[in-house]
Amino acid sequence: MKPIKLTATVSLILLFMNLNATQAQTTAQISYTVSFPEAQAHYAEVEMHVTGLKQNTLDLKMPVWTPGSYLVREFAKNIEAFNATVNGKIVASPKLNKNTWHIITKGVAAVTVKYRVYANEVSVRTSYIDVSHAFLSTSGIFIYPANMLHAPATITLTPYKDWAKVSTSLEMVNGNPFVRHSPNFDILFDSPIEVGNQDVFGFDVDGVKYEVCMYGGGNYDKERVKKDMHAIIEQEAAVFGENPNKHYTFIIHNHLRGGGGIEHLSSTVLGVSRDNYGTEKGYQGFLGLVAHEHFHLWNVKRLRPIVLGPFDYDNENYTTNLWIAEGFTEYYQEIAVRRTKLYSPENYLGQMANEFNVLENLPGKDVQTVAESSFDAWIKGYRPNENSNNTTISYYTKGAIIGMMLDLEIINNSGQKHNLDDVMKYMYTTYYKTKKRGYTDAEFKKGFEMFAGKKLDDFYKKYVNGLDPVDYDKYLGYAGYKTVNELADNNDAALGITTATTAAKKVIVSGVTRGTAGYIDGINVGDEITAIDGNPITDASTMLTGKTPGDKIQVTVSRDGQTIVLPVTLLKNNRVKYKIVSIESPSTQQLAVRKKWLSL
Fold first, then answer.
1. 398-433 burial, b if ≥16 CB within 10 A, otherwise e?
2. Alpha carbon distance 468, 365 (integer Å)
3. Residue 470, SS3 per DSSP
4. Domain residues for 83?
5. Alpha-carbon distance 335 to 400, whole Å?
6. Which residues does residue 61 pair with via DSSP β-bridges, in sequence order?
7. What is the spatial distance between Cα 539 and Cα 434, in angstroms, rounded to a whole number?
8. Measured between alpha carbons, how far is 96 from 379 in angstroms, rounded to an integer?
9. Between β-strands 110-118 and 193-196, what pairing exists: parallel, antiparallel or unpaired?
10. Omega of the bond prior to 586 within 30 degrees of 0, cis?
C-alpha cells in the first residue's frame, strides 16, 4: 500500500483532531459506580460519568480482550441496557461496531452512561458475580472513552448486602476501600478487583507490601503460605535487582477444581483447587503457579515485546516472542522455587523432564515453530480442537526448554560467571528502565549473545524459527546430565487414540495422534468404538489386551449412526518418557556448571 500524500488542508484537520483528542484527555473527568443489586443473577450495574467535555462527539468503547490472555473474547457481548443521558434526558447512543457506542456531545459538558454486565464465567481472566463475591476482570467491566486511555478514573463500589472487603492493586481514595483511583485505563484494565468477604492476610518483602486474598476456602496453612511466598518473591526480585512495586495483590480463587493464572502490573489472579494445599504435589503446584505469575511483574508487564504496550484494545496484538514472555516465565517458575530450596534438585530435574515429555509427545513439534506458536496464539493457542496436538506446540513448554538451553549455554561459556539472570536483568534495565519501551526480537537475541559470548544465528535457525529436534543431551551435558527414555524398551501395541467413556459405557474417540495406527487406518474423532475383532467394547483399557505391534485387527465403530468396520494394523507405542540423570564421572567443569545452574 502506497503512503497517502497529505494536503495542507488534510494536515490542518488532523492537527485539530489531535489537539481535540489531547484536550479531551487532559480536561475530562471520569468516574464509575459499580453496584450488584442482582448478584444472584450474576449482574453488575455500572454508572459512568464523564464531565468536562469539550468535543462534538464521544465514542465509548469496550475492550475486546484482556492483556495476558491472547484471545479476542468480545467482552461487549455481556453488555445490556446501555443508555446515555444528558441533563437527565436520554440521548441517542447508536453502536458503530461491535464494541463502540457513539454519542453527539456538541455543546454538552457532561454525559452519564448506565449499563449492565452479565458475569457468569469462572476463570482468572473473566468476571464472575454471585451472592458470595464479585470478581471484576476490569477490561470486561469498564467501558472507556476513545482517545482518553491516559485519563484518570475513580471507581466507587457499592457492595452487595454484607460484603465488607475489597482486594485490588488500585489505590484507595481518602482511605476508603470501596473507592479506588486509577491513573489511566491501561492500569485500570490491569487491576482486577475482588469484592466480598475473602480471607485477607499479608506480609512485607524488602519494603513491598503483599496482600493475599483467598476466596472459596481451602486447606491452606497461612503461615506456611506467607513464608514460602516470601522466599519465592525474594529470589525473583534478585534476578532483576529490584521490586518496582510499593504493594502487590494476590487474588486467589479456590474451587473444587481450579487451575491457571493471569498476570497484572501489580497483582495476579490464581485459580487453585481448594484441597491441593494438603498434598506435597498439590502444594508444590501452587508454589509454581505463584512463582510463574509473580515473575510476570517483570517479564511481560515491564520487560515486554515491543507490541505489548501501549495496547490496542480493539484488535489482536501480534508478537513472535511469547516464548520469551511466557516460556521463560515457565522456566523461572521452577528454577526460582528450586533456589529457595523448597524443591530438591531431583524434583526440579523431574519438572524439566516433564517439559521435555510434553513437547516430544506432540506431533505438532514437527509442524509449528515456537515463533509461530507465539504469533498464532490469538487464533490457535486459546482455540484448541481435536487436531491441535498434531499441528501445534505450546510456547510455554518449548520456551521453557529454550530458557534452560540458553541458561546452560551461558553458564558454560562464561566459566560460570553469568547465567540467564544476567540477560534478563540487562534487558529489563536497558529497555524498560532506560529506553522505556519494549524490545524487538533482534534486540533480545543480541542480549543473549552478549552473555553467551557467541552468535546464536544457528540456535535461532534450529530452535526458534526452525523445527530441528532439540538436542537435550548437548545442553544438559554442560552440567554433567543426560536424558534416559524410560519407555525405550517397551514393545506395547497402540492405536494412537485417546478416548472418553460415557456413563452408558460408550467408548468415544476424543483424539487421534498423527502417524499412529488409528490415524493411518482411519479412526476418527467422534467415533464410538463398539467392538475389536467382533468382541464388544465397554472399557477402553482392555481393547488391546494380548495384542502386539504388527497385529491386524478389525475395529468396529459407530459413525453418524452407521456401523463401519476398519481393518487396522497395530504399531508400536512411540511415546517417550524422559528422566534426567547424571552421567558417570562428571568433570570438574561440569560439576561447576551444575552447581551454578541448580544453586547447589
1. bbbbbbbbbbbbbbbbbebebbbbbbbbbbbeebbe
2. 9
3. coil
4. 21-188
5. 10
6. 100, 144
7. 62
8. 25
9. unpaired
10. no
Q: Are residues 525 and 550 in the same domain?
A: yes
- CA nearest to 232, candidates 326, 335, 340: 340
CA distance linking residue 233 with residue 336, whole number of Å: 9
Predicted confidence at residue 1, as pLDDT, reads: 45
In a domain, 381, yes or no: yes
Q: Is residue 135 part of a domain?
A: yes
By the 8 A CB rule, do 309 and 335 touch? no
| pLDDT confidence of residue 525 | 98
Q: Note whether 327 and 359 are same-domain residues.
A: yes
Q: Which of 30, 251, 33 has the alpha carbon at shortest distance from 128? A: 251
What residue ranges of the chain have pLDDT lower than 50?
1-25
Distance CA 315, CA 129 (A): 27
Written as one string, the DSSP assignment of 259-317 is --EEE-SSEEEEEEETTGGGSHHHHHHHHHHHHHHHHTTTBTTTB-BTTSSS--SSS--
pLDDT at 196: 98
- pLDDT score, position 23: 41
Amino acid at 496: G
Q: Give the span between the Cα atoms of 38 and 75, in whole angstroms.
A: 19
**What is the distance between the alpha carbons of residues 229 and 249, in angstroms, rounded to a whole number?**
12
Which amino acid is present at 517?
Answer: A
* Gyration radius of the chain's alpha carbons: 27
* Residues 546 and 438 occupy one common structural domain: no
Of the candidates 507, 492, 511, which has an alpha carbon nearest to the alpha carbon of residue 539? 507
The answer to whether the beta carbons of residues 334 and 220 sit under 8 Å apart is no
Q: What is the CATH number of the domain that holds 513?
A: 2.30.42.10
**What is the reported pLDDT for 27?**
73
pTM of the predicted structure, to 2 decimals: 0.93
Amino acid in position 422 = D
pLDDT score of 258: 87
